[in-house]
């Protein structure tokens, strides 16, 4: 968690868990983006995963350039690619 003036401005947490694999999810308030808040919380989360013997897993769409760039910065790499299908429901 990142805090500024007693306000939570960013979080990194396990979006889902399967055995020892934890999916990395980051949320940063809009006004705090591009200020390295995501980097700080991701680094802390991944270090805690290492300390506890947990395998962090990063999953995001190719279009999410910022998230992909941050994942590479954290030492994560692409494990596989899969298609996503969107449906419009009237």
Describe this entry's structure for a reader:
This protein has 90 residues and is of the alpha+beta class. It has a single domain (2-73), classed as 3-Layer(aba) Sandwich (Aminopeptidase), CATH 3.40.630.30. It contains two helices and four strands. The protein has a four-stranded mixed sheet, covered by helices on one side. The model has no long low-confidence stretch (mean pLDDT 91). Keywords: Acyltransferase, Transferase.
What's this, in brief?
This protein has 90 residues and is α+β, with helices and mostly antiparallel strands. The chain contains two helices and four strands, in the order βββαβα.
Give the termini separation: 38 Å
How many helices in DSSP terms? 2
The pLDDT mean sits at 91
Q: How helical, in percent, are the residues?
A: 25-40%
What CATH calls the topology is: Aminopeptidase
Pattern of helices and strands: EEEHEH
Shape: globular
- Just give the CATH class: Alpha Beta
CATH superfamily membership: Gcn5-related N-acetyltransferase (GNAT)
Number of domains: 1
Counted beta strands? 4
**Spans with pLDDT under 50 lasting ≥5 residues?**
none
- Output the strand order for the largest sheet: 1-2-3-4
Strand % is 25-35%
Which CATH-level-2 architecture? 3-Layer(aba) Sandwich
Radius of gyration: 14 Å
Structural class comes to alpha+beta
Largest sheet: 4 strands, mixed
Pfam family, one: GNAT_acetyltran
GO molecular function, one term: acyltransferase activity
Protein name: GNAT family N-acetyltransferase
EC number: 2.3.1.-
């Amino acid at each position: 968690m990142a805090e500024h003036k007693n306000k939570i401005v960013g979080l990194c947490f396990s979006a889902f868990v399967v055995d020892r694999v934890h999916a990395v999810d980051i949320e940063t308030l809009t006004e705090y983006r591009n200020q390295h808040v995501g980097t700080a919380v991701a680094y802390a989360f991944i270090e805690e995963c290492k300390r506890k013997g947990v395998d962090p897993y990063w999953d995001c769409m190719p279009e999410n350039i910022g998230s992909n760039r941050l994942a590479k910065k954290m030492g994560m790499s692409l494990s596989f690619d899969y298609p996503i299908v969107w449906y419009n429901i009237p």
